[in-house]
């Protein structure tokens, strides 16, 4: 069997809303030199990032170009075949019980299929809640995989408010988001060392004004409306094909 020349990073969770799309966006923007493509099987993700994301209902393995797979929070055909051959699997999780149970299940399943290169991202972490979630954090640390903490930050929602990706918006607001910047650079450094690829860490650029709360809320409302419409259209298309 001929060795695959491209790199594959797969972000996966069985739970939605844990940050898969945000992290795929960060990786696509921060990984330099070779162009990275994002492929998703989640229609809601495609609505948010359709200009730079390819939607694929039945996920397939691509061997041309470096790929970031952003897989929806649901079971799908070929997912575990893809996870088994990925160069790195990233599992974002929150500290809620449901998220932790699902993240634990995925890690156990990955090990069963021989995938050992796993990064767990504990997302939306709040330092003041460390004691509250002490048992949950210790459990995640005990799973035998590498892990990173991502602090809860307004960076992600503010980037949406100006129609900008997280990485570019962070770089245009150099004096803000210190914790988020450190988290993102830690992630990029980890991927760079793990996969032996180049990265482009955040650097100082022109500072832009933050969007108003009203603009942010309007963007969120429009995005959610577009997502619902897109899912409805695809559901109707499936019904039509089955009929």
In short:
45% of the residues lie in helices and 15% in strands. The chain has 243 residues and is α/β, with parallel strands linked by helices.
Description:
With 243 residues, the protein is α/β, with parallel strands linked by helices. It has a single domain (8-242), classed as Rossmann fold (3-Layer(aba) Sandwich). 45% of the residues lie in helices and 15% in strands. It contains nine helices and seven strands, in the order E-H-E-H-E-E-H-E-H-E-H-E-H-H-H-H. The protein has a seven-stranded parallel sheet, sandwiched between helices. Helix 2 crosses helix 9 (213-242) and helix 6 crosses helix 9. The model is unreliable at 203-211 (pLDDT under 50).
Descriptors:
alpha/beta, 243 residues, 7 strands, seven-stranded parallel beta sheet
Rounded to the nearest angstrom, the radius of gyration is: 18 Å
Number of H- or I-type helical stretches: 9
Mean pLDDT: 78
Please state the structural category: alpha/beta
> Considering the protein shown, what is the CATH homologous superfamily?
P-loop containing nucleotide triphosphate hydrolases
* Beta strands, count: 7
Using the coordinates above, name the CATH class: Alpha Beta
Instruction: Examine the coordinates and then state which fold CATH places here, giving the name of the CATH topology.
Output: Rossmann fold
- Strand % is 15-25%
């Amino acid at each position: 069997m001929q060795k695959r020349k491209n790199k594959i990073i797969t972000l996966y969770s069985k739970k939605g809303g844990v940050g898969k799309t945000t992290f795929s966006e960060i990786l696509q923007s921060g990984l330099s030199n070779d162009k990275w493509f994002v492929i998703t099987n989640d229609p809601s993700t495609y609505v948010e990032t359709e200009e730079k994301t390819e939607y694929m209902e039945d996920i397939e393995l691509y061997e041309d170009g470096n790929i970031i797979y952003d897989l929806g929070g649901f079971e799908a055909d070929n997912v575990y075949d893809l996870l088994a051959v990925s160069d790195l699997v990233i599992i974002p999780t929150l500290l809620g019980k449901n998220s932790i149970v699902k993240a634990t299940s995925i890690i156990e399943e990955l090990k069963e299929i021989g995938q050992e290169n796993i990064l767990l991202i504990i997302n939306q972490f709040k330092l003041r809640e460390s004691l509250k979630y002490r048992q949950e954090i210790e459990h995640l640390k005990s799973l035998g995989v590498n892990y990173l903490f991502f602090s809860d930050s307004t960076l992600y929602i503010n980037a949406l408010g100006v129609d900008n990706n997280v990485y570019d918006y962070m770089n245009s607001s150099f004096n803000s988001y210190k914790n988020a910047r450190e988290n993102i650079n830690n992630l990029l450094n980890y991927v760079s060392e793990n996969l032996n690829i180049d990265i482009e860490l955040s650097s100082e650029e022109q500072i832009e004004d933050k969007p108003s709360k009203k603009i942010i809320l309007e963007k969120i409302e429009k995005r959610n409306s577009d997502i619902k419409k897109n899912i409805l259209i695809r559901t109707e298309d499936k019904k039509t094909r089955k009929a």
